[in-house]
Amino acid sequence: MIKLKYYIERCYPYGTAFIITMMLFCNKICFVDSEHLSTALDACNTVVALIVGFLGAILPVVLGMKNESKMVSYLFECDENKLFLKYIKETLLIGVVDLFVTICLYFVSDIKNRDLAAYGFYIWSFMGISFLLLTYRSLKNMLDIIFMSDNQMINDRYYKSQEQKEEEKQIEEKFG
Length: 176
What we know:
Helix content is about 80%, strand content about 0%. The chain is mostly helical. Helix 1 packs antiparallel against helix 5 and helix 2 runs antiparallel to helix 4. The longest helix has about 35 residues. It is elongated and about 60 Å long. The protein starts with a helix and ends with a helix. The model has no long low-confidence stretch (mean pLDDT about 80).
């Protein structure tokens, strides 16, 4: 059961984004030639910038709690696989890649091959959806850490049996 939860938590942002992007592709929904594409690209840039800025602002709060709260400190000690750090890095990396793809789409009118432009739109869709879901996952974990009471932490997944820790370590070693 723990393995299934682990895989779902690690993969759902990409799996969901892939399914939605494939639905767009199969239904030939592509807004490359839309007059509103530039507005959507502007909105995407703004959202990515705000989220990356928010992550940058809230991360010191969480790390500050690491030194002040025994429970949060213990939580970080239990995070032997550094999942919290991996989630933040993954979110920031996908955000930067999404920003790059968005900037490239500003030049879509210069691309002569419309199929190539359409593929750019689908890549942008995948990256944008992935980024939003990764952001949700990262913020959910941060907010859980900030607002979780000591009793909840004791009863929650952060306090694991030795068997659970070994199982997760094997999973992490296997799939990185």
